[in-house]
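Appendix B: complex inputs.
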Amino acid sequence: EPEVTQTPSHQVTQMGQEVILRCVPISNHLYFYWYRQILGQKVEFLVSFYNNEISEKSEIFDDQFSVERPDGSNFTLKIRSTKLEDSAMYFCAGQWSSYNSPLHFGNGTRLTVT
Amino acid sequence: AQKVTQAQTEISVVEKEDVTLDCVYETRDTTYYLFWYKQPPSGELVFLIRRNSFDEQNEISGRYSWNFQKSTSSFNFTITASQVVDSAVYFCALSEASNKAAGNKLTFGGGTRVLVKP
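Resulting structure:
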């Protein structure tokens, strides 16, 4: 069964550095998402992406964050200048056309900012 | 604004016992979707079940069953004859249909950790 693939599985970076988290959704996914989960807490919505643009973003998704899907397959989340509080598990998700179809999540990237 | 509450933070059972996870939601939409996801110790999020707001029929799928009651805004989930492999964090989630432009943005509850002991 096709899967949403995220790389790397674990990223360690120093505060102030830029990081790029990568995701390859399942073919034919139309909607794309990033969520994050701080250790031991709930899963929080960051941003949704459709038709090559952001359709909605949360308060967490400030100017330090950006997303893009430059080549029609990879979907990336960039954090320009990481902070300690950005340490979390970041999940990418994809969805087919139906707005009530389930989101298919990747295995996540654990980001540790030191 | 949508909100999902899972009052139980942790449940511990012995293998073969049934375990019921509570979920209460808030939404102003008349059409919405409810989901349960499982997060095993390995960390991934695994889709389990989905329910539409206009279909209150409760179902059973294998060892999973759910009880959806619009009158009390609850969407409870039961694992029958629990097994050690069911040990995980279980998240209830809500999506509002009026927010179609954003696809299927999910609002998650805080999760319930289930520990099944042999």
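Chain A touches chain B through 28 residues (CB under 8 Å).
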